[in-house]
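FORM 7B - TANDEM STRUCTURE REPORT

SECTION 1: FIRST PROTEIN
SEQUENCE AND TOKENS:
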Amino acid sequence: MQKSCDYEIQLPFGPPPVLPDVEKQLKEYLLCPDHLPIHDYKEAQKYWPRVPNPRSLYHFDVAPLGTTLKVERDPTTGKLLKFREVPLDDMGHTAKNSMSLRRAPGPPSESIRGSSTNYPFWPGGFSELLPLDKNVDGDAEVDFVNNLLTVPPGFERGILFKADGRTPLKENKAQEPLGSDAESSVPEIKLEEKVETSVVNIMSLIKQEEDLLGLWQKETTKAQKKNTENISLQNLEVDIDADVAEVVPKEDTIPVLKITETAPLKQLTRTQWAEELDISHPVTDFEKKVPAMAKTWPFELDIFQKKAILKLEDHANVFVAAHTSAGKTVVAEYAIALSKKHMTKSIYTSPIKALSNQKYRDFKETFGDVGLITGDFQVNHNAQCLIMTTEILRSMLYCGSEVIRDLEYVIFDEVHYINDSERGHVWEEVLILLPDHVSIVMLSATVPNTLMFADWVGKIKKKKVFVITTLKRPVPLQHYLYTSAGGASKRGQYLIVDKKGEFSECGYATAKKNDPKEEKTHLTSKQEATLWVQFLYHLKKLDKLPVVAFTLSRNRCDQNSKKLTSLDLTTSSEKYFILKFFNRSIQNLKQQDRILPQIVKLKDLLRRGIGVHHSGILPILKEIVEMLFQKGWVKLLFATETFAMGVNMPARTVVFDSIVKFDGFEMRTLKPAEYIQMAGRAGRRGLDKTGTVIILCKGSVPENTVLKEMMLGKPSELESKFRLTYSMILNLFRVEKISVEGMMSHSFKEFGFLSHQKVYEKELKTVKEKIKEMYSNTQQQEPHWKTLSDFYDMAAEYLRLWSDVRAHILTHLKYVKELTPGRILLISHKEHINKLGILLNVDTRKKKMQSSDKDKSKEQYEHDPLWYKMLGLARKKKIFIPDGVGGHTVLTMPASDVIDIVKHKVSVDTNLVIQDWEKRQIPRFRDDPPGQTCSQAIQKLTEFTQNVSSGIVSLEFVSQSKDILLKDFEQLQNLDKLDVLEQKLNDCTSTDIANFEQLFEEVFRCKQLEERSKHLQFKKSYKSLSSYQEFQERVLVLQKLGYIDSKNSVQLKGRVACEMGSHELMITEVVLQCILADKQPSEIAALLSCLVFQQRTREEPDIPGMPLTLRKGVEQIKEIAENLKYVEIQCGIQPGRDEPNFGLVQVVYDWAQGKAFSEIMEVNEDVQEGIIVRCIQQLNETLRDVKNAAHLIGDQILKQKMQEASDAIKRDIVFAASLYTSEENPKLRQILDDCEDESLHPIGDE
């Protein structure tokens, strides 16, 4: 019997089948109802004999069919009875020409991924669907009641009719000219005036009978409310659950009983499109509100979970921002269970592929019917719940996947990942593109601006979002500092932040005091190993294992694990099961792959309870580490920051090896959000009362300000990382019905644009009315209006140019040297027009000057500063001469108010003048006379002004072109323009009229209103978007490269680029320039690896040592990259950082040639195994995109080569099946479960 059992185990696929699989037959019967006999169409068929008519071939119907056959069934048995012909509402609508959900389904091959030639479904929140998509052929339906023209084309006026639509209005009303304004001013006809009805509303009669004493009344106006002591129920603010408020009918639909006034209570936080639910009070009667839950749990749900479930039952959008381990997954599971109950689909998105695999395993155990879609493979793609990365969902939305039709919920996990600079924009695109019928469930860590983000989502989807935020962690954290000089006697652990979140100054001071005086920033390898061993034994003694040690560098993770050769944290029983699990997990690998150095080293580490987890580890090894850690067999895990994104992997203790990281640009301290994300892994709910977080101080203790900012600082707000990509622009140009500007305006980045549209519209209407009123009131000034208007235009142009030149000149060193204290300046500042002043001080923040004029009243400051400057130009730089002895004041003004620098300089102690002025600003010294120095300065300035007025001294200015020696050609051109404009202004005679200021003031106000109107129209237009300039530049790049034509129609190159997931321009140029035509499949794979490999290598790639064809291909790709870079710079775009990286070309070439992975790693020490595997997996997606592009352009040879290249790299350990998705997963789970019941086994390999 034992032999038979062994024989069965050795069979790779189990024993051969003897009888049909009953389970398989049952599944087919239940899951394929279309095979049932009641669907047999043969019995319902009917034959109509046809008479041949060859002449009918001359005629053909170019229009699509307008009818279809509909099935009639027996209502009792469901048996098919007959067919009948019914008209189609959306005839001719397909995925190639329509964005409607009612369009005809596409072919089965495009049901999941869609096609780049498909139209996406209409995004929710966009209001242009009906007018754009109602009729594909352009035969728009006309509303013959409300949408008729009142003015015939070509006529100046029309005829208005009364409500009956037949009787014309009086002649004097009908004769009025009707334009756009007239049509908009037509009074709205009330419904009661349109139709006379004989229907009697019985309920209204009953209501009149009951309302005998005026107990019931409709809502009163504000004026009536003030005059009565009674108030209606509508005006009461009752603090009830938002769920109950939803059930209460709307205020204007029911009569209300007058009751005694009650003091209003505080409302919940809310905006127009978002509402934060209060979780401080329990949900009453939850079981009554949801009597039949779609899914139940064996534990009592928290308040925030119940609130979220109630909103999910209402098909509302939900945003849950909760602490780590609070239970956000319950909300996601309930949304999936609801869609399963409703027989619809749900999609769960995650930021990283590894997280998708883990969720697939978890949801598979919970729901069964779960699918996984990644870039390289699909599992059960027809499942009710699909798990994928956000990039996959974006591609499905753009390509019009049929999955979107039946989609009810989309769950976005880790929404705070939207802050990622490289990939955050994908979240925004997906949220914008989701159709109306899809409900959004967002899960995130706690962030400060949840309400603002939810308000944006609600506004773009035109559907309210309910925000639910937890108040505290379910397992509080305690933060410690651990210091040691390498000896046990000096070891110390000091509490610095308690579980209430309060910083302990005493604990920090003690840690600082006991820190070694001789600060060591670098420990030797032996000292660091001793530190780790002592530290871990210290934690083991305190029962603080397991531990996640976050080490913010892959190399340091490996180094730390290698140093702990003497550390053993597992029992003999645990060793046995660890080795059994490990060997079973890698048994499908080839023998030569099982002895890779990384596998052998990690096997020994895991046996001793130590794990390593970072991107350089092989994917299958990372999954082994994750599963063993979840089981509790890994006591110490060295991990990088990406492990904090894991699912349900908390530890008792989290240790920070360092709090400084390199972010790609610089070394910096961890941000609060990063620290909280990693520290949140500490504390297992239901197992630990508190979570322990320890910062390992290998050198000196960090400053308390740094620790406070990192530990207690606010997490980063959700910020928009929206950016334009060529792929987005081409996809939207291909569709045409959604504009790129519309997509930009709906982004989180442009949230203010949408929010202020109504404000701008209202203000613009007011401004236009004012302009119209001003023009009607200024007809008597018509003779001078034109000349004064011309003067305003010239003066505005002069001041604009002057402002640009001034900003440039102020950066010139020689000009700045002229601005020394004591210099006389000609200024125009507010009401101080064309006055001479002494420069007292120059500062980067302010400039103080003295002017020979008395202080003015506040009423004269009401005018715009531009008004005074224009008056100064009207006076042709004629300086102000005071009457008698002028007063004085000290002003602070910007450099733009300095008209010219006078060559004359006054010798005076300006500091004493300033001190004297500041003293006289004190109330008790305000009436004191000026000091001696100040009086001398006033006298000298007055004498100089009088001498200039009388002609004794000529007023000479510093020349900006000669004295400053300005050499900038553009600025010299602007100076010439200024001279021409100044001459025109001096020759203008309209400024010499008697009442110039009075007349010009009306012109000035009217012009200001016109400019305000233009500014508001600009703010309302797409041109005011912050990304609009970049959009125009990218469109110019696409036009120059031939991807679109001058009318933005997508050309062949553009359609090819739409097939690409990334690097769309680069790959398209490589394909269409036939760079790959003469290459072998292995060479093609090697060359395209330069687009997916991003890591910087320590050594430059050995290009001269490559085969000749590879070297030629590398040079060609470099040339294309330089050309694209040149075109972008020419169009004003700064090229990105993702340049081709050829560091892995030789490795991929060898792999595609069939070399073993172990042989490749023997000669490659620069790039770790996990990085290589990830690069080759991403390369397979690129090869698939190029294959689709080759099919699109009809290049069958290139298509075949792409398939061969893909087949060449898809083998062995690089594409080993994930342990989460493979058929081995149940057997591995069995090993993990058996460990609790098995007795002790001998240690050794199986």
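SECTION 2: SECOND PROTEIN
SEQUENCE AND TOKENS:
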Amino acid sequence: MESEILNCILSKIGDYLLDATVRQIGYIYHFKTNIEDLKKEDKSLRSLKDSVQQDVKIAIRNTEEIMNDVKKWLSDADSVMADVEKFEEEIQVNKTCLYGWCPNWFWRYKISKKAAKKTKIMLELVHSKRFDRVSQHRVNLPGMDVFAPKDFMPFDSTKATLDRIVEALKDDKTNVVGLYGMGGVGKTTLAKVVAKRVIEETIFDKVVMVFVSQTPNPTNIRDQIADSLNFKFEEKTEQGRADRLYLRLKKEKRILIILDDVWAELDLTTIRIPFGDDHKGCKIFLTTRRQHVCLAMRCQHQIPLNVLNEKEGLSLLKSHAGISDESPTLNDMAIKVAGECKGLPLAIVSIGSALKENTIGEWKETLRKLKMSKLNVIENADRDVYACLQLSYDYLKSEEIKFYFLLCSLFPEDHKIDLEELVRYGMGLGLNQDADSIEDSRGQLRVRVDNLKASCLLLDADEEDFIKMHDVVRDFALWMASKQNHAFLVNASISELQKVESQEQYMAINLVEWERGIMLPDGLIYPNLQILILDAYRYGSILSEASDAFFEGMKALKVLTLTQVQLSMKSLQFRTNLRTLHLKYCKLEGISSLGKLKRLEILSLEGSEFDELPEELGELSQLRLLDLFNCFMLKRIPPNVLRRLSHLEELYTGRTYYSSWAVEGMNAETSNVSLSELNSLRRLTHLLLHIHDKCLPKDFAFSSTLQSYEIEVNEDFSIAKKKFSKSRILNFKRTKATSFAAFKALYPTLEHFTLSSIVDCENIVPTIDPKGLNELKCLQLAYCGELKCIVDASLPQVPATAFSNLMELSLEGLRGLREICHDGRPPKEFLEKLESISVYKCDDMYTLFPPMLFARLHKLKKARIRFCTKLQKVIELEGPSHSGEENLVLLSSLAELTLLYLPQLRCIWKGPTQYLRLKSLKKFEVGGCNSLTYLFSSSLAQSLVQLEEVIVWGCGRLEHFVSSEEDNKGEENVVAANGNDILLPKLRKLGLEYLPNLISLCPKNYKSTWPTTLEELVLRGFGNFAPSFIVELEAVMKTAFENLTNLEIWWCDNLKHILSLTLAQNLVQLKYMEIGKCEELEQILVVDDETLLNNKDHLFFPNLFQMKVIKCHKLKCVFPVNIGRHLQQLQVINVDGANQLEEVFGHTNRGDLINDKQILLPQLKKLSLFYLPNLTNFCSVDYHFIFPSLKYLRVKDCPKITTRFSYAQNDQSVHAEAKASKTGEEDGSAVNLTIWSHLELSDILPPYKEQ
């Protein structure tokens, strides 16, 4: 029997050995197949990765947040592909032994096995791509802090009003607060200050500000709220969107909605804003010019905002007029002028800005006009404000600047006005007649806008090239336009256009809220109308339609903007006065009729649908700008059309599928315009172009007269983001170096240069440009496999000066790149203005900055070096370099240094570092550098006075942060001003992860002084702490924890405890504590002084927001039970996988000295207890915890728990009570319990029974 068993066992072993042997032999037999499979899967993975990367680029352009799974997948793919690249190189180098005469079987076995393993990894990675989309939502929009006024002057009167508003909003019984006051008194400014303050004081979690205006639109109001909360409506109907908004607002516990500029009662239930009994956490704050609006809106607090008193008004006037107390004559005059402004801030600011640096005579004339002003009473406006604004208007220097001011009132209320639109409208109306070009017109407009802003008639819009106009100023401008017999119509619907009286008085119409998807009416008679704007400030999918007769009664029309309208161009053929025509996202027919508009100067067809430009377009001899941006349907521009546009200055064809310009061999009927026609356009200065290199004609060269350009060659998807930019950009992809000759005239002015997958190119200078690209600011090089250096100084053509203005350098995937500058001294001024460098996957570099190059880096601010497998030194200090005083400030501007995955990096700086001063370094990260043994020399560490963030991880041989002097020859005689102290006065974040050989932060004879500024401490992966490091760490904790907000400790196996009670009392700012997988951890908090625990004057963790404990198996309890009463801000408790945990809040085993055993956690929203096999209670027996804010409760796989969870209906709170012996369902204990929402609490939990 025994022999049979033995035979059976031996047989099985034999089978296993045979299978294993066959499998091992199979690696040799299938060598070729395994290598081919590897290449096949590598190609598949690269293709899939490129596809995902393209989706990511598009998502980022759309300001969407990339999902973490996608980021990780891309990172894994990069890592695997880099590994495979290295593996393939190994195969090429070691293919055979004995000079190729016989195969090396052991090598084949090893390589084949590796190939099979890597193929499997790639297959798994391809199959693990389970995401259908790469992003889940848009990046959060800027909050209220962006809109907080920068120049708010807190006078006593406004401060008192501000305090009243804030106190009213704090009142639990208050739902709606109203602020009323006349136009120009500062209601909007004060509302923004309120928003800033209630967020700073944490009265509300969210603040949303909505601009309502005289014609409130519920859809627009909902959209503004949705944008502020960063959520998107999926519903199509208005009712569906309203209901969705209601549900979204209900999720906010404390939210303030500011309704600015309310003119009449607003039905909040129609908009679906929950407040009052429906949602006590949602409060309304409105501003209005009319007190009866406050009454109609049932405001519990109606607060007036009065004008400034005499002293405050005078102070504000002097501030904006620039008057000092040393000017008695002007001071006397200022008192009188301020008195005439009646205490109105808008009027005071406007007059003060207009009179700045003016003579006493002009002050007297202003005072006379203010006293004599007799404006007619204007409905809904204060005559004193209008009188002051008219004086500011009268002070404007020219009629053109006055008309531009009036033109700004055409745009919607609170709208960001695009200066590009403004200049085009001005040109259409014949303004800027003395400008020689469109760019000159832009320059003139900017000067005029600056004057208007200086006069406080226009405002900045927090975005470059955009402005805004205050609603009171806009009302004044509209009134002023009507006074001058060219009235503007801005508040009408399409259907009302036919009913408007005195249609002949209107010079301009902009229908802000016009209906979509309708037939535009015929029979309109506006004989003096020069501007018609039917724009879509919110795009939809429904087109309106215009008949051929719609424009018949508008014979004076000069400027026309239509958005999302279907029309035939025949309807415009008799509007021969048109000079500016914008047809955005329209569907166009009969486009040949464009040729009839002989005076047209500006033509924009952005995003419109048509497949071919007509030959008749060439008849527009006055055309100066042609905009075809986003015209995805455009397939053809006939030859000889562009060359006839002799006055054309600007051409934009970016982000279109129209990239196939003429290619040799096309027949005449289907051929496209040739690029050579561009050189016939002698006035062309601005060009946006997206082409293929095969469309470059032989011997063609772009003209040097281009002032700005963005040209993309072979880009699959155009990355052009902004039209009308002044930048000069070239972007080449998959192009031969021979194609570069067409662009040589642009190199002297080129600012941004991107080269990707370029062939036949070993250097940039002198091969591409022998003159040195001295205007270049940004150079990006990617996957150019033959590139060996950027500048080859060994070649005779190399210029004396090169890259003298380069500020940003990016090197990615350049497998052949060995050095930045080859052979000898770099050209003059080379990289001397460089501020940022990024190096990624450049596997043939050994030293990034040799001495001759490093000495040039006076302005370097940011360096990021990653995945360079052979890099041994970042900075080489030994060897020939510049000498003298300049060496004393080397690297003094460096603010951020990142070094990741550099396996051969032995030192960051090689040589005597006493000439380096890292006095600006703020952020320092090193990871995956397994050959590093130290980070800083002692002298270098003493210059880190600005360092704010240090993250070091995955450096297996790292022993010291700072090396001793003995380890750094050449520094023995260097003595810092602060002796042997290493000071880090501004350090905010310290992250140390997976550093198994770390001995100490500082050498023995140096003392580190830790700041009280430390906010975040992360420790991960310390299997065994060195004794010297533990001593340093305890010193850090004693001195640097005063402002600590985040504490994370993971995989620190030999830690027995985290904090003592004495130390914990210093952690008053701590918000997040996370402890994970510390196998030997027995206590998080050691009670070293019982009197502290029971002393009410001592606070422990008063600001703790989140507590997580994961898989700490020897832990018996998380906190002593009496700590619970200190945790008044705690919102999240998550305890997972602690095998020996018995209680979350437990006894100290030293006697409980507190009689009150009821503990309230008022802010706790989420409680999770997972996989705790020995958990018996949430808290010690006879204690009673109350959670009034709990929304999420989950208890899973806690078989011994006896704590009773119950729900009190009267105050909607959850109770957790620990009793001595009761178990089972009858007492409400929870072995497995999941509650996802506070709405489920009463349904799942038993009712609370008061004892």
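SECTION 3: OBSERVATIONS ON SECOND PROTEIN
The radius of gyration is 37 Å.
The chain has a mean pLDDT of 82.

SECTION 4: SIGNATURE
Preparer initials: ____
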